[in-house]
């Protein structure tokens, strides 16, 4: 049975041909499936080589984010020892990358609405490589702070851009699973960050070993930077900016397959008003967009409070719980031994991030984003409650409660709010402000991450784990309430319908 060169939408070949003669949207071509020659529609069409390439190159940035941010938790004790950091300097370094992500997402993420998805997709990775080089050779605290902030700046820029290059290039029916599977590489990076830290410390048990931790990222990041020159520009973005001919050429490249279908494309420009209206950040707070902005931003901020606080400081909490952390390490070997122990425990807990994202990938396009986010928030609160109970015990019982609570939290946050907030932020806005909307949501959310990174060690010392966990339990439950109150379900909906 051979595939027909004439492709149809759900209504049949003849109707599709009629629509083609008048022009169609880029997303409708991406969403369509082929007919067999005798007229039977196929259930789905496999992704093209270009679609898979775009997915992989976008996923790589999330991998680097997880690797760098969570590896910092392992590197920080060594950095603090080498530079003799004060409590304030320690907090500044812990928050530098996350603050960079905040600024990058908020002020640079929207650049792809103006310049296009591809140019920003390339530039952010190239500049990231430069900051990684600076990070690995930083001679003092100031340069280290600048480098960590710069790395975060580029990772933040990628939050909306990486999402949109995927979501605007793949079919609506599996958009959730594809975006979330790419996002899942953040969890793989987080796990590998702890593993890399452990391995480097095992091979080079020196204070300056943290430099190698960051240096190992440079070569793969450079490869990804060069590979991004080969991807296509978003046809939907080109069409929204009135560049019909180039949009058609890019769409043909995107959908190149064997046997080829569609054999030809004809795109229809949006209304003249839509083409001229380039969009601005002010549009995020007007009309229906305001609801989307609240829905995309506030729950994300609330989940970042817990996810980054627990994620970054898991080694610190584990070391403190079992008593291997001391106010003053006797020597470098003592410091390295403590850090290795904490890295191993952190790696074990980070495995649950991966299981959580697998669940999100499998369920997002079946159950829907809203229920996963709500259930995830409630599950996070339950995990934190179990961890909080550990403060009333000692020994093995205390460690068991910490591990069970953190494992449940890590699974639930990645199945629910950590994954779904990222996915939804890139779906609920119209194309002309999609990057601005996703960037604003990511930047607003990182206010929570930066606050946690800076205040977590201070609060941990002054109010203790029990009260700290109680605060995070409340914010998790609040996230579930706000998600339900402002919900916008996007499961299975074409991005064209978000206009």
Structure description:
- The protein is built from 21 helices and two strands.
- Helices cover 72% and strands 2% of the residues.
- A two-stranded antiparallel ribbon has the order 1-2.
- It is mainly α and 499 residues long.
- Helix 4 (87-108) packs antiparallel against helix 20 and helix 15 packs antiparallel against helix 19 (417-425).
- The protein has one domain: Growth Hormone, Chain: A (Up-down Bundle), CATH 1.20.1250.20.
- InterPro entries: MFS_dom (IPR020846), MFS_sugar_transport-like (IPR005828), MFS_trans_sf (IPR036259), Sugar_transporter_CS (IPR005829).
- It is found in: Membrane.
- It is a multi-pass membrane protein.
- Pfam families: Sugar_tr (PF00083).
- One of its GO terms (molecular function) is transmembrane transporter activity.
Give short descriptive properties of this protein:
single chain, 499 residues, mainly alpha, Growth Hormone, Chain: A, two-stranded antiparallel sheet, 2 strands, MFS_sugar_transport-like, MFS_trans_sf, MFS_dom, membrane, transmembrane
> Fraction of residues in helices?
over 70%
Q: Low-confidence runs (pLDDT<50, min 5 residues)?
A: 1-19, 324-330
Q: Identify the CATH homologous superfamily.
A: MFS general substrate transporter like domains
Apparent shape:
globular
CATH architecture descriptor: Up-down Bundle
Can you count the helices? 21
Determine the mean pLDDT: 82
